[in-house]
Amino acid sequence: MKEYDFVVIGSGIAGLSFALKAATHGSVAVITKRKGADTNTAWAQGGIACVTSDEDSFELHVRDTIEAGAGLCDEAIVRRIVTEGPERIRDLIELGLHFDEREVSGHRELDLGKEGGHSKRRVLHVRDVTGKEIEETLLHEIGRRPQVELLENHMAVDLITAAKLGFAVEDRCLGVYVLDEKTGEIETLRSDRIVLATGGCGKVYLYTSNPDIATGDGVAMAWRVGAQIVNMEFIQFHPTCLFHAQAKSFLISEAVRGEGGILRNSRGEDFMKRYDTRGSLAPRDIVARAIDAEIKRSGAKCVFLDITHKAPEFIRERFPHIYETCLRFGIDMSKQPIPVVPAAHYQCGGIKTDANGATSLRGLYAIGEVACTGLHGANRLASNSLLEGLVMAHRAATACLRSPVGSKQEIPLPKWKSGNVQDVDELVVIYHNWDEIRRLMWDYVGIVRTDKRLQRASARLRNLQREIGEFYWNFKVSVDLLELRNLVTAAALIVDSALSRKESRGLHFTLDYPKTDDRQFSRETVLSRG
Ligand code: SIN
Fold first, then answer.
1. Which atom of ligand 1 is nearest to the CA of 128?
2. Which of 28, 117, 152, 440 lies in disulfide reach of 283, CB 3.0 to 4.6 Å?
3. 222 with 183: CB under 8 angstroms?
């Protein structure tokens, strides 16, 4: 058994920022399923929304966030995160991150991008590879801290709690079982402060902008130990992912629309004007639903994002990654519109936390996409998530250091028991189940929902949960099996939450209840085991 002052699960912006701060106070293990940089953060293109210009104000950023959130944001949290943002941005700059700048009347200032729902330009970015630059900066810094052990190719299996071990007087988190993928062994890590920073669950859907690691691990683990999970029905679909048979998950940043890109249907019409006065830069829920409606109405396979009216040099310089990637698929975005479709992008709900990232289980913290602080409400404002990860990492680290630690020797942690299990004999079963979940979620729990489709999804997921549970107990655990088990749990949480919200609000739109019902539903959807 290994023992650490802090165990962080996940190596994106939230996990690494937390680890850097905690490292000045003790030993830290950062557990990550693949390589350190295999995170959602590294894929973020748009940037970080933060008030830095004289033309902007905290008040406006708060207002835009709350307006996008469709009545479910926690205003106190929104204010905290927005106002603490600039300080946390300075931390990143001090670590060596260079945000793009531009020349204005003889001096340099930050080049701010614009995205849907923002009333001002406020998105700090590094061309269109902001997340990759942030990830590299943080990983470089982590490498210089001997107190931090980065455990790559390690996957958390389950949290260890006092209740699970039969000490139920006051439940708390004591450690975590972790699979070392290289050896196939399960290690026991003890810590009184476990931080879930595992990102979201985009992979529950057939089409997603997320990398393969986004399998809802943190939410599923927290659910299994009884932590509160909220607002899982609010899955954000990004309106513009590249539509191309070989282009798996490639996002076309909203910043392209921020710089004037126009969505057109197959007849070349600027159709968004019919749906919202803000046109192509309306908030994402509106744009994604409009594209869905256009596609369904016309029978076309996609719509098009047109930025050909901009100078080719501007496009190549501002969006080098998107430009090069499209070109590899035979699309020159400076000359032709990009075919795009919506895809699952962001989990706005998650593990319920307070303003310091503490969950309902003592010793367990959650930060970043896996958590639900109340910032996003029913629909996240673009580029608010990196900001949230950064600010909440700082707040959680500060709170962790203040909170008393339980006596480490009090409760002995048992070693993992494998029992009489064998290797999975037919991997095809895992892949089949995986595929079935993603397809049914896409078909029945997508951008437009109905009770009937949700109930169908629910019934199928219950069967799958039973079957996957049997695999889990009878076969040797592997990353594939663990991910599948988490995926089906995350999918079921989304469906259960969606079924309980009998109205349409933000990202949750159902044909059975197309109106918002503030009298009954202007509250979080809370799920809790038992
Ligand atoms: C984008 O670049 O469009 C994604 C930004 C975000 O999801 O916040």
1. 2
2. 117
3. no
